[in-house]
Design a protein that fits this description.
431 residues; single chain; 20 strands; 25% strand
Length: 431
């Protein structure tokens, strides 16, 4: 399991409960040195969080190796170590804890280095960071909450491994996890038995359930010829079987398109219909996504619904990507101009009220977002009307975070935390 580069870790920032009382809060700190060291060399950590609390270095408690100590107990300890690969948990007593939301956390960590002249000791490590307190409760039971590992794209496999990613998901209070078959399954499409065992062991460890499995039907697989419906069905069925082996109930096939408004290749109908019996046998629902620049009121959506009504299937439904509700532009990236990037990145502004027209066919929602600031204000997605529309239409399934913003390492972890804090607050007010 890997640690974030920041001295202050985003995961682990939460209130502490003793029975029905909230008695304080805690956060995690990584070892700032190039080596681990005896815990008796820690000279304490002062903590200030906005206007809520400001405590001197001797007040916080330390948890190392699963055991909690006062600073005095650390000084007297023998054999207790703060290992380089371990984040220490720091607990600050505070009756009632911190309010939900983003907090400006400042610390001064003091370490005693024996090989540095005493007049230059202790060594002080200062850090400040905006961190979102882990949301509490389930949003009034209005929705279920999950995270797509796509949110951690570019981090995954570089600064995040599978366990670190799942731990970050669980730390938001989410219960569901979404993956991409070709993005997260080693040796796809034939993972080893050992990896599958690890997958289920980690799901159990972090109390997560598999939700949606992302797959592809690469209709342009071979240059110079079109994929047939039979070949498309074979690709889809391969992923239906793998998704089932990994415990998923939904499969999102991203089907090759033939137009700028994402009309799928005509083979989609034959590919899906050939696969409905298998989907039924496996208990899996196939759910293509309605993704910007395709709005809800569009022939693509009409065709999907027509298949459902014509076949009477319960194993095909719609997946809504909330990027369709984006009503403000994503900032231009370096080298981009309005003329050189797709127009839909400025937002297509679908009216959330349109959701009611298709709600009975919607089985999953990917909660796409790009940037949420330290005031918990989303810069592109109007969450209050979106969530109200979903709730009013009777949707109570998963909202699965899909962060697609700036890919600075580790930024995605904090952004997902902010989204969960924001949407749960809104959802609790809808309950």
């Amino acid at each position: 399991m890997l640690l974030e580069r920041d001295l202050l870790q985003a995961t682990g920032f939460r209130n502490v409960h003793e029975g029905d009382r909230v008695t304080g809060f805690q956060f995690r700190v990584r070892m700032p040195s190039y080596r681990g060291m005896a815990a008796s060399l820690i000279d304490g950590i002062s903590v200030r969080v906005g206007n809520h609390v400001d405590v001197p270095a001797e007040v916080p408690l330390w948890t190392l190796g699963g055991k909690t100590y006062t600073l005095g107990e650390l000084w007297a300890s023998e054999g207790v170590r703060w290992q380089l690969e371990e984040a220490a948990t720091v607990t600050v007593p505070l009756e009632g804890g911190l309010p939900q939301g983003v907090h400006d956390v400042h610390i001064e960590l003091k370490l005693r280095m024996s090989y540095i002249p005493i007049e230059h000791q202790p060594t002080v490590h200062r850090a400040s960071r905006h961190i979102t307190l882990a949301p509490e409760g389930g949003g009034g039971g209005v929705f279920q909450y999950g995270v797509s590992l796509y949110s951690f794209m570019h981090d995954y496999g570089t600064v995040l491994d599978l366990e670190t990613a799942l731990a970050a998901v669980a730390d938001t209070g989410a219960t569901g996890v979404e993956i991409l078959g070709e993005g997260h399954v080693p040796n796809y499409p034939e993972p080893t038995a050992a990896w599958i065992d690890q997958w289920f062991a980690l799901l159990e460890k972090y109390s997560l359930e598999p939700t949606n499995y992302g797959s592809w039907i690469d209709t342009r697989l071979h240059p110079g010829r079109h994929m047939t419906a039979q070949e498309g069905a074979a690709a889809l069925q391969r992923d239906l079987r793998l998704a089932n082996r990994l415990g998923f109930g939904f499969v999102r096939p991203k089907i090759g398109v033939v137009s700028s408004d994402l009309i799928p290749d005509p083979i989609w109908t034959g590919s899906v219909e050939r696969s409905l019996d298998l989907a039924h046998e496996l208990g899996v629902v196939i759910c293509p996504e309605i993704h910007s620049p395709t709005p809800i009121k569009h022939p693509v959506v009409d065709d999907y619904i027509a298949l459902i009504e014509r076949t009477g299937t319960k194993n095909f439904g719609l997946l809504i990507d909330t990027g369709i509700f984006q009503d403000r532009p994503i900032p231009l990236r370096e080298g981009e101009t309005r003329e050189t990037r797709p127009a839909f990145l400025d937002g297509i502004g679908v009216d959330p009220a349109d959701f009611a027209d298709v709600a009975q066919y919607v089985v999953f929602v990917q909660a796409k977002f790009h940037d949420i600031d330290e005031h918990l204000e989303d810069q592109q997605i109007p969450w209050r009307p979106v969530l109200k529309a979903l709730n009013d239409a009777g949707y109570n399934g998963y909202l699965s975070s899909e962060y697609e913003g700036e890919r600075t390492p580790w930024r995605s972890i904090e952004q997902v935390r902010r989204q969960h804090s924001l949407i749960r607050k809104i959802a609790s007010e809808l309950a």
